[in-house]
């Protein structure tokens, strides 16, 4: 969803008079709040199930939309676009045959390099919106979020800090903790802030470093975004906070492992990856790893390599 936040910006840049409504799940909605390109935000609580979805569709029918762009192309969005009769409809192609060939036989017919935002924006060319990335930021933080971030920075004495994001949805997408430790050890002069979820207890392996402020499980999504917006740089696995960094325009280093479709798109993000025959091994990085050297795609990226990239950002 985070990468899709560029869609309203592109449309508004070409047709400023367009009224844009944006539908998203409740757990992501706060990232779309305050977006000046979005006239109205529609929120779906997944806990309300099918009834909640039908209720949302009923409300959407009253809006008399002229166009619907289904950027997600899943079952929920399929039902929304199908039951809304009348508007012109555009669906982001999932390119399932290309995905099958890539994941099963490592035959890559996708446009290179991979770009998550390009794949979301290029279908709009059919409606006359030439592909381009709208300028950052494409996440707009409200005053409360900025104040909360300032309070956290003051509380922990944060100044000229860098963000580390050691977690990811699947273990195979995580740069090894020994590499994170080495990176911190190589930079005693940098104050690092660790952001992760409540269950990511493995990040406490970094606690013994004097230049670490570990906020694992202590920040909301918006508070994390506020801290990222004030950071000098971000080092991250392939995960949501990486895309938040990108949409805020904060320089980042992306550690890309087994999954193929989460690649950032902006020049502010430097990508580190390995060109291995076994990559990608799965759609989301859930595995299994088939390389004789377990997790070579990330194990072989050294802290020294990240250090060289980080020096160019600071």
Can you summarize this structure?
It is built from twelve helices and ten strands. It has helices at residues 6-14, 29-32, 49-61, 75-83, 96-105, 116-121, 143-156, 177-186, 221-229, 240-248, 296-299, 303-313, and strands spanning 21-25, 40-44, 67-70, 88-91, 161-165, 191-194, 212-214, 233-237, 252-255, 269-272. Helices cover 34% and strands 14% of the residues.
Secondary-structure blueprint of this entry?
Layout: H1 6-14, E1 21-25, H2 29-32, E2 40-44, H3 49-61, E3 67-70, H4 75-83, E4 88-91, H5 96-105, H6 116-121, H7 143-156, E5 161-165, H8 177-186, E6 191-194, E7 212-214, H9 221-229, E8 233-237, H10 240-248, E9 252-255, E10 269-272, H11 296-299, H12 303-313
Parallel strand pairs: 1-2, 3-4, 5-6, 5-8, 6-7, 8-9, 9-10
Helix pairs in contact: 3-4, 7-9, 8-12, 9-10
For the CA atoms, what is the radius of gyration? 20 Å
Residue-averaged pLDDT: 95
Largest sheet: 6 strands, parallel
The span between the termini is: 29 Å
How many domain units? 2
Task: Please identify which CATH superfamily of the largest domain we are dealing with.
Answer: Glycogen Phosphorylase B
Assembly state (oligomeric): single chain
Tell me what you see in this structure.
The protein has 314 residues and is of the alpha/beta class. It folds into 2 domains: 3-127, Glycogen Phosphorylase B (Rossmann fold), CATH 3.40.50.2000; 143-313, 3-Layer(aba) Sandwich (Rossmann fold). 34% of the residues lie in helices and 14% in strands. The chain has helices at 6-14, 29-32, 49-61, 75-83, 96-105, 116-121, 143-156, 177-186, 221-229, 240-248, 296-299, 303-313; strands at residues 21-25, 40-44, 67-70, 88-91, 161-165, 191-194, 212-214, 233-237, 252-255, 269-272. The radius of gyration is 20 Å and the shape is globular. The two termini are 29 Å apart.
